[in-house]
Design goal:
alpha+beta; 3-stranded antiparallel β-sheet; flat
């Protein structure tokens, strides 16, 4: 058998292999002790962020859309795309045309990308989901809409989810919610000591605890066990409550990491947490200006390039209708400071910039 010059003898590697096997066993034991860890995408914070962005995209107005796009880029499809951008970091839609006419936008469940550095060389192998089977296709990059949350220079063909960028925080949140879930699923109820138990007292107690759902279990009294040693404490005869009792630090950790995940997804905490009206309106403006509009422009640029729609845009103006009073006050202040009315209207977003 050939051996690389720098490779050690097989006997020298055996201790390392045994150590690896031992590590695997220990890891399995520890995993069993901790319980099955939850997925970061299954946490409430991620659902809040994905739902908020998805619903905002569904409510956005399609401005200067090419013929047929309104009927295909439906609110439902935009909502799904928004959720996937948060949870997965990217969305792929296959473009179908009939004689140059746009006929369908089909979401892919999985895909791979091939090609060299120029984007024009990229080809996509995509799987399109169906109720009974998937359809696999290979198409040029010009035949798909590849929408991404973000990308990095080393892998420009792959989208990055905010949960990937904040992986450690998302995992901590998932772990804390997993521990809370396990704590909440534990038996709970009341234990009342009694003087006699059968021979199989331990087995009976185990069965009772498993069946507890806030009810009562009778257990052997310390008094009966200590009958020859004097009276047991009177408290032994009181019913004791046990059940969900998560450490306060765990809930604090969950709350802190949940807020951090929301921030990583671009959703201000004040939108969902108790806050005064002024704080919520300001948070909502930040949400639209710093999250939705940049995300909408990124999506629109892909649509303009692939669907020959040079002026297409996602308009989030309807989402700010509740802030008309605040914008009117801002216009009044700008005009009072000497800014022309038309320019003031553009600044606050009540009028589109003609440029």
């Amino acid at each position: 058998m050939l051996r690389w010059p720098w490779k050690r003898a097989e006997a020298a590697t055996e201790p390392e292999e045994r150590a690896s096997a031992t590590d695997a066993v220990v890891s399995a034991i520890l995993a069993g002790a901790r319980g099955v860890a939850g997925s970061p995408v299954a946490t409430a914070a991620v659902e809040i962020a994905a739902g908020a962005i998805g619903r905002a995209l569904a409510a956005a107005k399609l401005a200067d859309a090419p013929e047929g796009l309104d009927a295909l880029l439906t609110p439902r499809l935009r909502l799904t795309a928004g959720r996937d951008l948060v949870r997965r970091g990217e969305v792929l839609l296959l473009i179908l045309r009939d004689g140059g006419r746009l006929t369908a936008l089909l979401p892919a469940s999985s895909w791979t990308v091939e090609g060299s550095a120029p984007r024009e060389s990229w080809r996509y192998r995509a799987s399109l989901p169906g109720p009974s089977h998937h359809l696999d296709v290979t198409v040029a990059g010009s035949e798909v809409l590849h929408l991404t949350w973000a990308t990095e220079a080393a892998r420009p063909w792959a989208g990055i989810s905010p949960l990937t960028g904040a992986k450690l925080t998302a995992e901590i949140l998932a772990e804390s919610e997993t521990h809370l879930r396990d704590e909440a699923k534990a038996p709970r109820g009341y234990v009342l000591p009694q003087t006699e138990q059968g021979e199989d007292a331990l087995g009976t107690l185990e069965d009772q605890l498993k069946a507890l759902k806030g009810g009562l279990a009778l257990v052997q009294s310390v008094r009966s066990q200590a009958s020859t040693m004097g009276a047991a404490p009177a408290k032994d005869w009181e019913a004791s409550r046990f059940g969900f009792n998560a450490p306060e630090t765990l809930e604090v950790l969950r709350s802190a990491t949940g807020k951090a995940v929301l921030a990583a997804c671009g959703v201000p905490v004040e939108i969902v947490a108790p806050s005064d009206g002024t704080g919520q309106r300001e948070a909502y403006r930040r949400f639209v200006a710093l999250t939705l509009e940049p995300l909408g422009r990124t999506m629109a640029s892909e649509i303009r390039a692939k669907l020959e729609a040079p002026s297409f845009a996602l308009d989030f103006g309807p989402l700010m209708a509740a802030d008309v009073t605040g914008k009117a006050r801002a216009v009044q202040s700008l005009v009072g400071a000497g800014v022309p009315v038309s320019e003031a209207l553009v600044i606050v977003g009540l009028l589109q910039d003609p440029a």
